Amino acid sequence: MNNSPCVSICIPTYNRARYLDSLLSSLAGSLTEFPHSFEVLVADNCSEDNTQEVVARYLDRLPLRYTRHDSNLGGAANWEYLIKEAQGRYFVYVADDDGLLIAPLAQAITIMEAMPDAGVAYAPWTLFDLVANQDLGQFYKQDDDFLVERQDFPRLLDILLKYGIFPEIGVYRCDVLRAVMPRVPEQAFYAFVHAAEFAQQGHVLFLKDSFYLSVTNYFADHQRQQAGTEEAEYAWDRYRGGLEYVLGRACPQVTEQQRLEFMQRIQSLIASRIAVAVRLRIQRQRDPVETYYLASRLKAMGAEHLLPAPLEALAIRAAMTFLTRDKETNRDMTRMLCVGGFRKDIRQMIEELSQIPVAFVASKEDLGTPDNHTLVFALGSELTRDGLSPDFKGRFVQEKHLMQKFIV
User: What is the DSSP letter of 165?
Assistant: First the structure.
């Protein structure tokens, strides 16, 4: 007699006992209505907090199996360990700081049970503010459930691009999951790669109803960085790599014209993700110089209109940041003299950014004799380095040269 559960709910964790406690409490309450047999696996990456004590409190409330590794294996290896250990027909991942919607999860598994040729059922996730008890909507939306038949890579790519799907959350058939042997590549976004690998093995489902809660705000007294939003700042090139990988699989099945059209659609999606990255960088006050370089790529892609701020404004901020923060420009400088009629907003920006005292003078006649530890920044062309003392050994930067470096 086979006593294996239908579903393995798998939770990797590390040093987040408080979050894990909340998740296990939620599962213990909600899974009483779950119509499928299940197990809960917790893989502890050698936590240094009271994770073991938290898990012990739920051993009599959940069919729970707990493993504490002797050392931290890393996130990807811990996930792979859970794939190996799961005893259910289906594998469901849940982060230790997220949650599950039990009724739609049960429905997703029922659909999978009725479709034995499907290896995975992907679904969008719901963003939820637990502190405010507020549903913030789904990360992406699709208007129906979709089936991609085995090895139909053009349809797979079409659906990913049409709905902006990031196939990160799913119900996986365990035998197919192990056959796929999913890993996390460096050059291509893992979720797009994995979707193509699942499509190689069997049918792929895209369900419109969410069964996963991505908690954006868990405790009022403790904020933590969301991995997904952190990734959105820099992973857009891997997104491109993942989508191009799917297109590579599709190439034998499409014409050259269709391939070019897919490439244009990939470009459009990546442009939208770069715009998101720029917005996040501005909000988080990242290095404006690097933000400018990223924003300039949108101009090259013909998508400057997607920028959350005018490129000119980003260029000015980048230029003033370079002027005031570049190590070589500011090496051994103890003060800055700005010469010319600077706009009020530019003056304020320089004063805000500079790490050395700043003084403003209207013209070169007011400049005096700057010493060799002075950075002179000249607006316009009235003052050149030749207009300074031949003995001046400080730094001289002319505004027109600086802005040519950050041209719009």
Answer: -
